[in-house]
Design goal:
Structural class: alpha+beta
CATH topology of the largest domain: Rossmann fold
Largest sheet: 6 strands, mixed
Mean pLDDT: 88
Shape: elongated
CATH class of the largest domain: Alpha Beta
Strand order of the largest sheet: 3-2-1-4-6-5
Oligomer: single chain
Number of helices: 17
CATH superfamily of the largest domain: HUPs
Low-confidence stretches: none
Radius of gyration: 29 Å
Strand content: 15-25%
Length: 454
C-alpha cells in the first residue's frame, strides 16, 4: 500500500467519514483531485464495503473545454461501471440573475444538485475532492477577509452527509501519485488565471510563502486549522449552554435585549452576534462592526453606530437594534428637496401618468397609485419635518408624521431619513408607508399617477 493511500485511509478512519454499507456519490470534475479520489475509493471499495456513483455538473463556463470535461467524466464512470448523473447549468446566467459572483453561483448550484441527487437516488454520502491545499487557501483567504473563528477553522472534513476523504492530502502529493501511476485527468486552464481571489492566492501568494518561509505550508496550515476547529467547536458548545433566548426579527430589524447580551461571556459575544447576523441578514460583519455593536451595551439609550454595508446598530430602551437601510445612499441624495415633474425620471424616483388604475394593487411598498385630479404636474420630494401633518389613508382626520412613524414602529434612527412627496404644499405620500386619503383613487377619478421609488 502506498504512503499517500495509507495517509488517506488513516484520515477517513480518524474522522469516521465512511461506514460499511455507505452509498457514496462522488463529485467528479475531471481534474486531478476528483480523479484521484474516484480512483482511490474504487481501489478500496471492498475494504470500506461501499457502493459508488458519479455526478458531474457542466457549468458551461469554458465552451469546448467544458464539453470535453463532461465527455471525460462520463467515459471514466462508464469504464468503472458506475452510475453516472450529468447536469448542465448556465452558471453565468445564474450568477447575473441572483447578483452573486461566478464562484458563489457555481458553489450554490453544485451543492444543490449534489444534495437533491443523493436524496432522490438514496446515496448516504456525497464525496467532494477538497484537499489540504484547498484548505490552506480557504484559511488564508478567510483570515485576510476577517471572517472570524469559523473561517480560519478551514474546510470541515464532514458537513451533514458531505465528506472530504482526501482533505489531508496536498495537491502536490495527489499530482505526484496520479502522474506516477499514469492516471489521466483534465486540466482546467481557468485555474491558471488570476481573475479570481482564490487563484491569485494559489498562483502568486502561496509559491512565494513556500519558497521564502515554509515549504510544508499547506500541512502547517492544515494542522493549525484542525486546532481552530476544536476551539470553534468548544465555543459553539459554550454558546449553546447559555439560557435560550431568541432575538426578535420584525420588519427587517433584529432586536437583542441588552440584558441577554450581557449574560453571554464577553469572549464569545462577537461569535454569537456573528451567527445571528449571518442567519437573519446573510451579513458577515467586519471586526470593527462587532466593536461598535458591543460598545452600545455601555452607552446611553438612542446611541447609534454606522456599520459596514449600510447596516446600523442602535441602542433604544434596553434593546440593541440592528437593521439595514437599503435607501441610505438614496435618502442622503435628498439633502433638502428634489423637484420632480410628471414624466420625469431620475436614479431613484419617477412619476408617470397612467390610463387607469390597476385592477389589483401590488404589495410592493415602493409603488403607489394616486388621483391626480386636483394636483399640479410638479411634485417635491423631501425629508419630513417636525410639524408635518397628513391625512393617512383609511383613518379619519389628520395626524402628525412624527406620531404616524411611531405607530408604524419605525426606529428613531430610520425616521430622520423618511421621505415625503408633496404637491402644492400638501403631503401626498409618506414614501413606502401610506398615501394621503385626500388623493386616493375613487370611481370619479379621471387622472391616475403612478409613484415609484426605484
Amino acid at each position: 500500500m502506498k504512503k499517500i493511500e495509507q495517509k488517506a485511509i488513516k484520515f477517513i478512519d480518524e474522522k469516521k467519514l465512511i461506514v460499511p454499507g455507505d452509498k457514496i456519490l462522488i463529485a467528479l470534475s475531471g481534474g486531478p483531485d476528483s480523479v484521484f479520489m474516484l480512483s482511490f475509493l474504487n481501489k478500496y471499495k471492498r475494504k470500506f464495503k461501499i457502493e459508488l456513483a458519479v455526478i458531474h455538473i457542466n457549468h458551461k463556463l469554458r465552451g469546448g473545454d467544458s464539453a470535453e470535461d463532461e465527455k471525460f467524466c462520463q467515459a471514466l464512470a462508464s469504464s468503472l461501471s458506475f452510475p453516472f448523473y450529468l447536469y448542465r447549468r448556465n452558471i453565468k446566467s445564474f450568477s447575473k440573475k441572483n447578483k452573486i459572483s461566478i464562484e458563489e453561483a457555481g458553489r450554490e448550484v453544485r451543492y444543490s444538485l449534489f444534495v437533491s441527487t443523493a436524496k432522490k437516488f438514496g446515496y448516504t454520502k456525497i464525496a467532494t475532492a477538497h484537499n489540504c491545499s484547498d484548505n490552506a487557501e480557504t484559511v488564508l483567504l478567510n483570515l485576510i477577509k476577517g471572517t472570524g473563528l469559523k473561517g480560519i477553522a478551514g474546510i470541515p472534513a464532514v458537513r451533514g452527509n458531505i465528506i472530504r476523504p482526501i482533505l489531508n492530502l496536498s495537491k502536490e502529493e495527489i499530482i505526484h501519485y496520479i502522474d506516477k501511476n499514469k492516471i489521466k485527468y483534465r486540466i482546467d486552464k481557468s485555474n491558471l488565471e488570476n481573475d479570481y481571489e482564490r487563484n491569485f492566492i494559489r498562483n502568486e501568494i502561496f509559491p512565494l510563502l513556500k519558497e521564502k518561509l515554509n515549504p510544508a505550508l499547506e500541512n502547517t496550515i492544515f494542522n493549525s486549522s484542525e486546532i481552530f476547529k476544536d476551539i470553534n467547536s468548544f465555543v459553539q458548545k459554550k454558546i449553546e449552554k447559555f439560557p435560550k433566548f431568541s432575538p426578535q426579527f420584525f420588519n427587517g430589524m433584529l432586536r437583542f435585549s441588552v440584558e441577554d447580551l450581557q449574560s453571554i461571556d464577553k469572549e464569545i459575544r462577537s461569535e454569537f452576534l456573528k451567527q445571528q447576523l449571518e442567519k437573519y441578514f446573510r451579513f458577515q460583519p467586519a471586526f470593527n462592526d462587532f466593536k461598535k455593536i458591543l460598545s452600545l451595551i455601555e452607552k446611553d439609550t438612542n446611541e447609534k453606530e454606522e456599520l459596514s454595508q449600510n447596516f446600523f446598530a442602535v441602542k433604544d430602551r434596553g434593546k440593541i437594534l440592528i437593521f439595514r437601510n437599503k435607501n441610505a445612499n438614496k435618502n442622503k441624495t435628498v439633502n433638502k428637496e428634489l423637484k420632480i415633474s410628471v414624466g420625469d425620471k431620475n436614479d431613484f424616483f419617477s412619476i408617470k401618468e397612467m390610463k387607469e388604475a390597476p385592477e389589483k394593487y401590488s404589495p410592493n411598498k415602493k409603488t403607489e397609485y394616486i388621483s391626480g385630479d386636483n394636483l399640479s404636474d410638479n411634485f417635491i420630494l423631501r425629508r419630513w419635518e417636525y410639524g408635518d401633518r397628513f391625512f393617512p389613508l383609511g383613518l379619519e382626520g389628520s395626524k402628525k408624521i412624527s406620531d404616524f412613524l411611531t405607530e408604524q414602529k419605525i426606529s428613531p434612527f430610520k425616521r430622520k431619513d423618511q421621505l415625503v412627496l408633496t404637491n402644492k404644499g400638501k403631503i401626498v405620500w409618506v414614501v413606502g408607508l401610506r398615501i394621503d386619503d385626500r388623493f386616493k383613487i375613487t370611481n370619479n377619478t379621471k387622472k391616475v399617477y403612478m409613484l415609484c421609488m426605484n
